[in-house]
Amino acid sequence: MNHLQTADYIVFFIYFIAISAYGYYIYHKKKSKDISSKDFFLAEGSLTWWAIGASLIASNISAEHFIGMSGSGFALGLAIASYEWMAAATLIIVAIFIIPVYLKNKIFTMPQFLATRYNDKVSTVMAVFWLLVYVFVNLTSIIYLGALAISSISNISFEWCIVGLSIFSMIVTLGGMKVIGYTDVIQVLVLIIGGLVTTYLALTLLSNEYGFGDDIFAGLSVLRKEAPTHFHMIFKSSDQYYDKLPGISVLIGGMLINNLAYWGCNQYIVQRALGADLNTARKGILFAAFLKLLVPVIAVLPGIVMFVLHNKGLFQAEMSSEGVLKPDHAYPTLMNLLPPGLKGVAFAALTAAIVASLAGKANSISTIFSLDIYKKFFNKEASDRKMVNVGRWAVAISMTIAAIVTPALKSLDQAYQFIQEYVGFISPGVLAIFLLGFFWKRTTAAAAMTGALITIPLSTVLKFLPVWTNGAFPDLPFFNRMEIDFVVIVLLMVGISLLKPQTLANEKAIEVDTKMFKFSTSFAIGSILIMGILTALYTVFW
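Now predict its structure.
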C-alpha cells in the first residue's frame, strides 16, 4: 500500500529527533565564543576522518541513487555500478594528487583557486555559473526526485514533500559545516541500514518466489541465473545500452573525466576535506572510497531483482504508467512491499540521503556566495559574524528558489542517466581548467576563460550534430563526447597559452612540489585493498 502506517511514522520520528538533537548538541559543544566564518563554512580542523568520509558519501548519495540507479539497474543491470566503483578508484587519485594542492595553497573554495591561479574574471564567471547550476540543477533535481519518491511510498502530497524536505534541509544547513559533517555520520548510517533492509527484502522475496524460502544467497543465485545479461560491467558495441556505458570508456575514458571533475573540482564535495589537515583528509576520502564499494548493493541490486520479478509477471501495473514501462518505479514499488516499521526504516534512509545531499549543496552555495561574491564585491570589510549571517540567508533564499522551481521538472524520466549526461556538458571544461592550472605553469587566464566558455557550446554541438546533419555525423555515446570535448578543450588551452611568450607567461602559478604527493603506509595499504577489490569485481563481472 502506498502509505505509511503508525509504526513507520514512529521510526521516522525517532530518526528526525535523533538528527535534530545530535545536530543541536554538536552545534553547542563545538561552538566557539567568537563566530568564525571559516569555522562555519569549513568546520576548520574539527571534522574527524570518519566524519569527512561519511559526509562525502552523504552529500553524494541522494534520491537519484535510490530511485534513478535502481531504475538503471532494472533497465541495463550491474554495469551502472561503474559510476560507484570507479568513483572509489577516482577518490584515491583525488586524495593523492588533488587535495594536497588545495591544502598546501590554503584554498577554501573552487572560485578562490581560480582567482589565485588565474584571475578574478575567471573566478567570478565560474562562481556565478556554479551558483546557478547548484541552485537550478542540483538542488531542484534532488528535491524533485526526493519528493517524487516520498510521495509515491506515503500519503504525503508531492507539494508537501517539497516543503518538508526544504525546511528540514535548511535547519540542518544553518548550523554550519560542523553540524552537517557530524549529523552526516548518522545520515549515512541510517541510509546504509535502510538500504540493506530493502535489498534483503528484495532478495528474500525473490528466493521465496522460486521456492527457496528466506535465503538471500539462494536469491542471489536465482538473480544470476534469471538475468545473466544484467551481470556484465563492460558492454560491447553491439549491446543495447552501449550508448549509455560505452565499453572501456567506463574505466579510462569519459567516466574518469566525469569522476575527476565531480570528486576533485566540485565545491560541495571537496569542501568536506578543505578544513582538515592532509592526513585526516586522506583518511576520510579513503573511508568514502570503501563506502562507495557498498552503494551498488543497496541501489543497483534491488532494481535487478525487480527486473526478474517483472519478467515473471509480477508488479506489471506498479512498474507502468499509462501503459509505458517505467524503470524508475522499481525502488518505490519495492519499498511499498516492506512491512510496517521496516518501511519506516527505508523511508528514513531515503529522507536521510535527500536531506544530507541538500544540506551539503546548500552549504556550498552559501560558501561560494559569501566568500567569492559578497565579500569580494559588496562588503570587503565584512566581519565574521556578518559573513555567517549572509551565508545563512544564502541558504534560506537558495533553498526557497529551488523549492519554487522544482515542480517544473515533472517531465524527467530515467533520471540518473539524464542528470549524468547533462552534467557531462560542463565536466570536461572544468576538469581541463583545473588540471592544467594544477600541473602546467604556463596555462594562462585567457586559456582558462576560453575553456570555461566553450565547454557547453562544444558539448551541445557534439550531441545534436547527428540531428543537424541528418545522420551524416555518428550519434556518439555521451561518455565518448566527453572525451572529445576534453581533448579539444585541452588542446585549445595549450595552444592559447603557448601563444604567450614564456617570459610573459602566467606568474600566478600555485605551489606544487613532489613532497606534497607522498602518503602514509596505512593509506597505501587501504588503496591497494580497494584496487584489489575493484580488480576482482571487474574480473568476475566483465
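The chain has a mean pLDDT of 84.
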